[in-house]
Please model this.
Amino acid sequence: MSVAANGNGGAFVQIRDVSKWFGELQVLDKITLDVPEHDVVCLIGASGSGKSTLLRCLNLLEQVNEGEIVVDGVRLTHEKIDVNELRRKIGIVFQAYNLFPHMTVLQNVMLAPRKALGISRDEAEERARPLLRRIGLEAKADEYPDRLSGGQQQRVAIVRALAMQPKLMLLDEITSALDPQLVSDVLDLVRELADSGMTMILATHEMGFAREVADKICFLDGGCILEEGPPEQIFRDPREPRTRQFLARVLEAERMS
Model:
């Protein structure tokens, strides 16, 4: 079996019967999902439902125990997969910004292209500055991360991933560590990426945002995709009682906040 997949279905991301255990605890249970190129898929569900683990499996930060994942025609679950080559195609951003505190904003954005792609400092800077300009932070290029707000740091973390020119972006609850007034700036950037055609899979608790940007919503419960569909169907007429219960609880919490 070769690393390249036998084109089956044509989806940019193909996940087939993926299961994952941590010891005796099963955290993913036969997950199957297709993501067409340029689509945005939002993963929703309670904490511990498997959203973050699924994203980490897609970037090989976790190894699956069963099943198959194919991204852009490459079988991630093949034993001979080049992990570093794969990660050049897939950007991932977490709740924590993970910026290097001893480096300036510009240096943080330039680092991965220089180290992973071997491009020159000048080329890396030519790539980084327009990205910082795009998020309104070019004036902060020479500042250190601790001089930025949380929302600014998270936007830098996103453009640091974009500097690698990935074909797929994975976003894991990127607004959950932010003060409410900082969330909108980060979501505006993700909205812009969606409008530009970036293929994205994101875990989020921001239901209004998910409804607006997603092509597909997947509700995870107990490591399974219990229900999936277009946003209007999931939010207006969910089929599963667990989906209805979860959405009612989240929307009530949003109203009370």
The CA atoms of residues 149 and 246 lie 32 Å apart. Residues 22-97+168-256 form a domain with the Rossmann fold fold (CATH 3.40.50.300).
